[in-house]
Amino acid sequence: MAGGNWTRVEEFILMSFSSLPTEIQSLLFLTFLIIYLVTLMGNTLIILVTLADPMLHSPMYFFLRNLSFLEIGFNLVIVPKMLGTLLAWDTTISFLGCATQMYFFFFFGVDECFLLATMAYDRYVAICSPLHYPVIMNQRTRAKLAVASWFPGFPVATVQTTWLFSFPFCGTNKVNHFFCDSPPVLRLVCADTALFEIYAIVGTILFVMTPCLLILCSYTRIAAAILKIPSAKGKHKAFSTCSSHLLVVSLFYVSLSLTYFRPKSNNSPESKKLLSLSYTVVTPMLNPIIYSLRNNEVKNAFGRTFRKALGLRNCIS
Predict the structure, then answer these.
(1) pTM score > 0.85 for this model?
(2) Which stretches make up the G-protein coupled receptors family 1 profile domain (predicted)?
């Protein structure tokens, strides 16, 4: 005992989906395992193909590689531990392990917001200033934009995680979630967290909604530019270059908003778990599928890379 009812917490128990029958948990395990493998394979293929194919060395695919790398990291932080809890291998997570998982969850989550905003800016320049696009989005500029997209996650994750885990914990150590998210861990704190909660709200507005506003501004300008194109074919071609990104952004922000911005009276722990699955598990799987199926350049690159790999194999044989 550290004094009063405060207890030094050495580990937490992730409740995950323990309220569901064992048969359902086994089914969820198989489902999430398949999704996890598809996510890793799909995003890895996007990275390899956009690196290998010279036709995909444009800024758009440079940022897409960054997004795929981010999605792989996001999945590695959340899914393996969740799969273990579903089979009840080990539902416990150490104090340090919980803090580390939360740190990288914040890091990748914030960085994805800024990276999606950067990708929207890239589409804005490509459609609104096509003649100046190669000059504006040169290698140096895209590298700076990538660094600027990855950097915000460091201070946000460091401050929020360090602050939260500096609080004393008491009573139960059961986290009613499938990973160490801030709200369920915060409920275990036995101290005044009002200032931290204000910071969390301000941080959410600043680091989540600001990129969202930048995306909205970019697409407002893009829509205005597309409407000025006289031919229907030209409009379709311009829209098709940003439709994949727009769909990815919509999936990410809609699921994020439904999880964190619903009234508390409508936000039960079980419903929040289901909504959290959409942006932590499902969206990272859908991103490479969306960019592959809705983008002819990526589909053609997959074909060229496959044929090249097949030809090389035949030559070796």
Answers:
(1) yes
(2) 42-291
